[in-house]
Every structure is written in structure tokens, then in C-alpha cells.
Design goal:
Elements: H1 9-18, E1 21-27, E2 30-35, E3 43-46, H2 53-63, H3 67-74
Antiparallel strand pairs: 1-2, 2-3
Length: about 80
């Protein structure tokens, strides 16, 4: 199993955009993202300097991807 990366909210938004998510609105530092496939859950990503480990795991679970696939998007 790959190790979970330590990333910022800004970088997470860019990675999820590569997966087909689109930022639909922002309120304060939180970005709401939807996928064109409505069967996928919407994501709310805070644009903080570092995302917490638990939050990142929840985002990956909601996006239905694994840690390995997410690490590939970071490259």
C-alpha cells in the first residue's frame, strides 16, 4: 500500500480536476466540486496549506479512487 501524501488544498483541487471534477462554487476557503457523472459524490475541499490525513482519506473514498491512483495524479 502506498503512503498517503501530505499536500495542500490547492494541489488537491488540481488533482481532482484531472479526474473530471469541476469547481462549481467557493465560499471562503472551501471549494465545492462536482463530477459530470452525477453518481459520484460532490467534494468540499478547504484550500488550507496542509490537508489533514483523515480528510484526504475521506475525499479519496468519496471520489472512489485509491491512494496509488491519487499519487500518480500528483506526478
Amino acid at each position: 500500500m502506498s503512503q498517503l501524501p501530505v499536500i495542500s488544498g490547492e494541489k488537491a483541487v488540481k488533482c481532482f480536476e484531472k479526474l473530471g471534477y469541476e469547481a462549481v462554487r467557493q465560499r471562503g476557503s472551501h471549494v465545492r466540486m462536482w463530477h459530470a457523472d452525477k453518481s459520484k459524490k460532490p467534494l468540499t475541499i478547504p484550500k488550507h496549506k496542509v490537508l489533514g490525513k483523515g480528510l484526504l482519506i475521506k475525499l479519496l473514498r468519496d471520489a472512489e479512487i485509491g491512494v496509488e491512483e491519487f499519487n500518480e495524479l500528483l506526478l
